[in-house]
Amino acid sequence: MKLFIPDMYQKDIFTIPYQKLKEMGYQLLIFDLDNTIGSINEKNCNLETINFLNQLSKDFQVVIASNSHKKRVQSFCRNLKCKYYSLSLKPTLKVLRKIKKDYNIDYQKMVIIGDQVVTDILVGNRKKILTILVDPILNHDLKITGFNRMVEKILNKKNGIIKGQYYEKK
Ligand SMILES: [Mg+2]
């Protein structure tokens, strides 16, 4: 069950303690797309997030790994400088293996940030990557996510994760 527990739980991508992550030696940040850096209604990444991610690129390698199809991810990431991976198939290890190969960085130096326990957190924990759960930007999800949310609710209850009770890894 530990596989479903994030190392940190934060409100959104803006409240994550990046300075601390840097000091802890992390080098590569993997962001989920839908409901993590953008809502599913947003076709393009908003300016605030673009600037924020570009700023982060000064301290980290920043990549986006989305389970969505190429057209969606490509269009959303158009104005972002970071590399993106579509059809990631999280929680399978496919995308992590690809990132490891592309960047030649150990899993121990990676952080994965996402809004879903059964995809983002699970895949990260499978490789002992630092996992950070954030609240979804909107409560509105793709249909397929509805089922995941149901499972997540049960898992969170079991694991004592309470929505809105944010925490950081010590
Ligand atoms: Mg998501």
Rg, rounded, reads: 15 Å
CATH third-tier fold name: Rossmann fold
Identify the quaternary structure here: single chain
What is the structural class? alpha/beta
Q: Please give the CATH class.
A: Alpha Beta
Identify the strand order in the major beta sheet.
1-6-5-2-3-4
H/E order of the elements? EHEHEHEHEHEH
Bin the helical content: 25-40%
What is the CATH superfamily? HAD superfamily/HAD-like
The biggest sheet, with number of strands, parallel, antiparallel or mixed sense and barrel status, is:
6 strands, parallel
Features:
170 residues; alpha/beta; Rossmann fold; six-stranded parallel sheet; 6 helices; 15% strand; binds magnesium ion
Q: How does this structure look, described?
A:
It is a single chain. This protein has a single domain (2-159), classed as Rossmann fold (3-Layer(aba) Sandwich), CATH 3.40.50.1000. The protein is globular and about 40 Å long. It has a 6-stranded parallel beta sheet with strand order 1-6-5-2-3-4, with helices on both faces. The mean pLDDT is 94. It is of the alpha/beta class and 170 residues long. Helix content is 35%, strand content 15%. The structure holds magnesium ion. Magnesium ion binds at residues 32, 34-36, 114-116.
